[in-house]
Amino acid sequence: MEQEPPLVRDVFPELIDELATLLEEEGEHWLAICVRDVHLVGECGCRDDFCQSIRTADHPPGQPYGPGHRCVPLLPSSGDLILDVVDGRIVYIEILDRPPLRRRVQP
Q1: Highest taxon of the source (predicted)?
Q2: Would you say 58 and 41 are in contact if contact means Cβ atoms under 8 Å apart?
Q3: Do residues 35 and 90 make contact, with C-beta atoms less than 8 angstroms apart?
Q4: Alpha-carbon torsion 87, 75, 95, 29, what sign?
């Protein structure tokens, strides 16, 4: 049986708190709730030193998301946070030009 990827909130709780706050400020109430339950499926993998983006759903690299896709740019105090949302589901969190994310230390 395959184990489910960890929740982003368990790995990067400060990121999720910030995203929920910013989504509320943008009037994206449903996404502010949903962001607390996204999984960390993988890291971007581009190897750019300014990128810490994460995948929250499986998707073939280099392929468009297709119908139902929209970008949700947020206004953080530093860098860029942009969500890719498909049919109301957050599938990618773009994290650019920001201080390094701090992982929660697991007991």
Answers
A1: Bacteria
A2: yes
A3: yes
A4: negative
The tokens describing 15, both together, are: 């990121």
Strand, coil or helix: 33: helix
What is the C-alpha to C-alpha distance for residues 68 and 23, in angstroms, rounded to an integer?
Answer: 19
> Pick from 7, 25, 14: which is nearest to 90 by CA?
7
Task: Quick: pLDDT tens for 26-50.
Answer: 999 999 999 999 999 999 989 999 9
What pLDDT score was predicted for residue 37? 97
Provide the pairing of β-strand 80-86 with 54-55.
unpaired
Residue-wise pLDDT for 16-26, tens only, equals 999 999 999 99
What pLDDT does 55 receive? 96
Instruction: Give residue 30's pLDDT.
Output: 97
* Segments making up each domain of the chain, as ranges: 8-96
Q: Strand, helix or coil at 30?
A: helix
